[in-house]
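Appendix C: a fully annotated inverse folding record. The material below is reproduced so that readers can follow the format used throughout the book. The structure is listed first as C-alpha cells, followed by the designed sequence.
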C-alpha cells in the first residue's frame, strides 16, 4: 500500500535525477556567503600551523579586505536604518520651518 501512495505522488515515477555535488570550498548553488561567514572560514584556515607562508599571507590580506568590507556594509546599513527612522520627523520639522517662513514673509509685506 505504501508504494501505491508514493507512486501517486510521483516519487517512484520516472528516472532518478542525479544532482551535481558541490566541489570542496567553492560557492554552493550560486549562493553568496556572508562576510561574517567568509571571515570565520579564513580565520579557521589561518589557525592551521602547516599552512604555507605564501598562502598564509594571501589569506591574511583577504581577511583584512573582508573585514573592511564588513565594516563598510554595517556602516551603510546603520545609516539607512537611521534615515528611515527619522524621515518622518525631518519632514514635520521642515514643514514647521516653512510655515514660519511664510508667516514672516506675510508680516514683512504688511
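Designed amino acids, in order:
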Amino acid at each position: 500500500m505504501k508504494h501505491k501512495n508514493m507512486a501517486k505522488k510521483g516519487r517512484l515515477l520516472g528516472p532518478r535525477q542525479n544532482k551535481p555535488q558541490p566541489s570542496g570550498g567553492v560557492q554552493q548553488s550560486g549562493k553568496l556567503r556572508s562576510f561574517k561567514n567568509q571571515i570565520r572560514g579564513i580565520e579557521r584556515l589561518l589557525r592551521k600551523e602547516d599552512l604555507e607562508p605564501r598562502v598564509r599571507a594571501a589569506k591574511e590580506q583577504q581577511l583584512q579586505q573582508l573585514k573592511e568590507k564588513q565594516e563598510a556594509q554595517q556602516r551603510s546599513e546603520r545609516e539607512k536604518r537611521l534615515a528611515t527612522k527619522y524621515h518622518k520627523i525631518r519632514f514635520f520639522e521642515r514643514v514647521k520651518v516653512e510655515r514660519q517662513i511664510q508667516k514672516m514673509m506675510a508680516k514683512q509685506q504688511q
